[in-house]
Fold:
Amino acid sequence: MKNEILKLLNRNARYTVEELATMLDMNVNDIKAEIKRLEKDGVICGYKTVIDWEKLDGAYVSAIIEINVVPKADCGFEEVAEKISSYDEVESVYLMSGGYDLNVVVKGKTLQDVARFVARELAPMDSVTSTATHFVLRRYKELDVKLCENEVDDRGQILL
Amino acid sequence: MIDYSKVLNSTVQEIKPSGIRKFFDIAATMDDVISLGVGEPDFKTPWQIRKAGINALERGKTRYTSNWGLSALRDEISVYYERKYGVKYSPEDEILVSVGGSEAIDNAIRAIVQRGDEVIIPQPSYVCYEPMTMLAGGTPVIIETRAEDDFKVTPELLKNVITPKTKLLILPYPCNPTGAIMERKDIEALSQVLKSTNILVISDEIYSELNFGDEGHVAVASVDGMRERTVTVNGFSKSFSMTGWRLGYACGPNEIIGQITKIHQFGIMSAPTMSQYAAIEALRSCDEAVESMKEEYNRRRRFIVNGFNKAGLICREPKGAFYAFPCIKSTGMTSDEFCEKLIETKRVALVPGTAFGKGGEGFVRASYCYSVEHITEALNRVEEFVSELKNR
Structure:
């Protein structure tokens, strides 16, 4: 049941508990309780809106920064990852396998903003040994949602 | 000047073109119409099936296949029907691959029915059985199934229409448009009625994968006494979201399928080759994809049934296919009026039940081959419509 609820909320966080209850053939109060539990346990960490900023004038730019780090003896990557996560400019932070250590998504109003942030905040950190910045040119899909969908429903040629 | 009405086949001329087409052509000219009209999955064909079709094209598999269809595909169909529904058909001579389920139904009717034969057709049901029967020279005999029987064919309804001329019974379950299914006990009861007769059965099981009943889909041929008299028709359109691939099949005793295959051989030759290769993949490795589509349909099904009832239109639980069939009698309108007014004022397209036979009067068909968000919007508008009617 947990997974069913999460799957649906992941598709559309705005489903009401009543709608979820109907779709899953469950009791509204059970759904409410389960969601509360999932929030309390930190499984559900938040609810966000998927926005295609390119459609607005005030679009922002974002970049993926590949960062190499010297891990600390006592806490590995945790300390630096947490420190990076604490910036408002940082959208996401992942520890990676492969050629570099941390993958950080940074957003800013302009290219310069992002470049400045990397140069002034990320690169000078003690344990950071190198950064490589890749600017995002276009978003096609974000959090499972296609942003460039122009598909029309071409059914209806045969009706019955 | 040729007077075509005197020249062309009078039976064909008698067949009325579907009135729905006009209705939906009007809908197409309106802005902001939200449709629950389409009887076609919104899911794309699962990618691995499409890939198998692409592979077939890349390998140049573009020639005719055997009249019966690729033997590898018939093997898979045989395995599928046995593992899913417990009916064993020999891939050598009891399975014919056809151009959609419809071709199989048409050919089966033509192989069985001749002038003067009566064909029992339960309605409301899919629109092809009656004209196909007429084209074969047969006489359609309609059973009006009833909401209080959950639109099933009961032994009583069946007994009432059997005559010495009865040749064939069509069983269209899970049913478009009613969403009705036949459970094992229901089919067993019919089997009792049929057992002392030579009446044959065409079981149109195209929606077999979409049966939400407790016991799942029961193949008619799996019931005692039915296999020898039943042509089982199924296909890939609905279960695997493969409508445009045009691929179906008929299974049954070789004595019948062999005759059907002769008609197919001369009319069609063989079903589309790349579609057949794709279908092999569908049967081999798509259980999971089918299951996940079914789960989604099931969520939508609960959602739409709940929505119609909330809107004040009694909607029984449709146990199969992907349609809800709510009753609109409480509005005092006919099905046609209801649908016309609804699209005029609220821009929602539903199909009047009468499109599926006279017995559909008082009902409308709503497809749930749409996203929950789309269905929600349509239901909101229907609710508005119904409440405005009541407050007038």
